[in-house]
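I am still getting used to backbone structure tokens and would like to learn alongside you. Label the sequence line and the structure token line clearly, so we can match residues to local backbone shapes. Go ahead whenever you are ready, and we will take it from there:
>
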Amino acid sequence: MHWNYWIVFGLGIWILVSPWVLGFSSYNLALWSNIFSGCLISLFILWNFIPPEE
């Protein structure tokens, strides 16, 4: 069931780069909000890819 992790990871990356792609990077609050949430989502998903220690 790892395919859904890849979709959420892609959405996290999209949130991260969307201020520059959609052209609202001049709005500081929206820019930093997207950077923070995109990084957080991507890091949590990457954390889920690490297998648990036994």
Observations:
- Residues 3-49 form one domain.
